[in-house]
Amino acid sequence: MSQGTLFDKVWELHTVKILPSGQTQLFIGLHLIHEVTSPQAFAMLKDRGLKVLYPNRTIATVDHIVPTENQARPFVDELAEEMMVAIENNAKSNQIPFYGIGSGNQGIVHVIAPEQGLTQPGMTIACGDSHTSTHGAFGAIAFGIGTSQVRDVLASQTLALNKLKVRRIEVNGDLAPGVTAKDVILYIIRKLGVKGGVGYAYEYAGTTIERMSMEERMTICNMSIEGGARCGYINPDEITYNYLKDKDFVPKNQDWDQAVSWWSSIRSDADAIYDDVVVFDAQDIAPTVTWGITPGQAISIDESVPQPEELPESERAIAQEAYNYMQLNPGQPIKGTKIDVCFIGSCTNGRLSDLREAAKIAKEHKVAPGIKAFVVPGSERVKQAAEAEGLHLIFQEAGFEWREAGCSMCLAMNPDKLQGNQISASSSNRNFKGRQGSATGRTLLMSPAMVAAAAVTGKVSDVRELI
User: Fold this and answer.
1) What are the pLDDT digits (tens) for 320-376?
2) Which CA distances in Å does 415 have to 65, 405, 409?
3) CA distance 180 to 183
4) Could you tell me what percent of the chain has a pLDDT over 90?
5) Taking Cα atoms as reference points, which of 64, 17, 7 lies closest to residue 39?
6) Would strands 24-27 and 158-161 be described as parallel, antiparallel, or unpaired?
7) Is 0.85 topped by the overall pTM?
8) Is 276 exposed, middle or buried (0-12, 13-18, 19+ CB in 10 A)?
9) Number of CB atoms found within 10 A of residue 34's CB
């Protein structure tokens, strides 16, 4: 097993005890909750006569079901309104800090915690959402959990977990113009497979990763779960500390210096032992697009949908399923594929830097006729910052809709849905069947800049031709 990695150090520091099952009872430093997976957990707590053990270690917000076009209460969707009322009441009755719509701090749970400095290196973090791995960008160990585990954390502030192996994934070299963090993580998942990370924590490293901004690192760690890894992380460094300094919840003054010293101490040792090491060259990565029904079914913009015989035997059955569902033929170039909807947002790519990159492409262009294109900021703070820079005007002038903060069409548990067999260019994280709200809707994952390029051309396009 691994030794001396950040994962090993954080795991050991948060171990309460080893359970008879062999699992570790792990203390969770920060618990993030939202409106979809928490109501049942609070109900189970109530049924057992239990209270929230550490309310000050839980933060609540709303993101999954909130409309992004009309947020007037009560919501038109009665179930969504019911969920809103439930989390408002549960937060209030349990004295849990709650960031609701209009608070100035509402947004996607994986966007608001980093931007406020709630997420810090060396923490253990849990949330009832698969993409909790996002917080690993700060050197935290962060797990997506199910509803029963949300209950466990509320009641005990701990989780029973099996320790993971650690795979170091190095990406070295300079990325070519037009190639982004989204392309890097789609490339990694393509190479290692959607189940390649099962049983592992991913440690991302190498010169390419080290040069990335915190928002780019969050994109990388966000999609760890799409590669099968339970969590993913990057060792904290000066880029991490510069991002965190002066944020709301980070230590201040001399406490800051002590915090930085401790954060640096939990970095993986130079002679750390890993269970596996994989190395990639950044020069091999091009703008990348998914063609199928898993994030691993991805190709560069210059490639064609693979022929069955080009794939390993184990991947041919799901490839055939993907050809049929996506209505794409083997050998067909992905570039030039007509699209209907363009979505820029999500916990993967709904931050300010993502909107800036997309706005560069949208500027001085118009959304192609017949294309529905919209931008959903990841949080109220992101929206405010983007509007201060005038990004909303660039998008609106180009023909994009400018929305309120929320998860939106990433998972379509709100009014933002595909219709029929529409095909979307999406900056989100999953392209599963029906993911964006229609049982026959189709999703092509790509970077925000690539989505903007698709919006102004009406088809999957190479962003490098527009920069």
Assistant:
1) 999 999 999 999 999 999 999 999 999 999 999 999 999 999 999 999 999 999 999
2) 8, 13, 8
3) 5
4) 100
5) 64
6) antiparallel
7) yes
8) middle
9) 24
Residue 11 identity (one-letter amino acid): W
- Give 295-310 pLDDT, tens digit per residue: 999 999 999 999 999 9
What pLDDT score does 403 carry? 98
**Spatial distance between the Cα atoms of 77 and 84, rounded to a whole number of angstroms:** 11
DSSP letter string, 64-83 = SS--SS--PSSPSSHHHHHH
SS3 114: helix
Summarize pLDDT for 24-66 with one digit per residue, the tens. Answer: 999 999 999 999 999 999 999 999 999 999 999 999 999 999 9
Tell me which residue has tokens 């405010």: 384
pLDDT band at 316 (very low <50, low <70, confident <90, very high): very high
Burial class (CB in 10 A: 0-12, 13-18, 19+), 246: exposed
Token pair listed for 301:
């913009």
Q: What is the dihedral of CA 337, 343, 344, 346, to 10 degrees?
A: -120
Helices 380-388/391-398 angle, 10° precision:
80
DSSP state string for 155-168: HHSEEEEPPPEEEE
The 3-state secondary structure of 354-373 reads HHHHHHHHHCCCCCCCCCEE
Please report where in the chains the tokens 């270690």 appear, as a residue: 57
What six digits make up the tokens of 247?
């944020």
Separation CA 226–CA 294 (nearest Å): 8
